[in-house]
Here is the input.
Amino acid sequence: MPFRVTARTVLQLGAELISSDAVAFYELIKNSFDARSKRVEIDVVIALPSSVYTSALSRLPSDSEIDQAALPAIKGDVKAALDFALPGAREQAKAIDAAEDGGTLRRAIQECNYIEIKDTGHGMSLEDLENIYLMIGTPNKIREAEQVVPGGPTDFGREGTGSLVHDAARDIAAGEIYYAG
Here is the structure.
């Protein structure tokens, strides 16, 4: 009889292993270096002050139902506080203007502030994604450690739990995680 785990168990495990924002960032950076990136670049973009961000989101219900008369006031407050000196702020303002319901406006506001972690590491094949990354606790890291060449690159991850960090990072971002390439 196979051992089974629910998605809730995986989320709980991730929450236990990734105990703070700092640990989540450390794990994301570690994943980049394990992908053989020579460098990792972290951009923190805060185009909207926290007080305005929090206030605007609290005025929007969690679903897309909102009094249409309230949208212009929320949009105006957000756009007035946007830092237009930052890259992408004009596009964010256009997305805010274009929002016709609470859900779309919420997403546009959430995209004003973000953290982008960029690296030059190698990606994964579909097979690696399915059989290694999306499977917790694989022996892959142990096998890689056995093949390490003296003086060669070091693998930081050894537990096979690196994929759990993305749920924690999503919680930090209070939104979504996007992958390029």
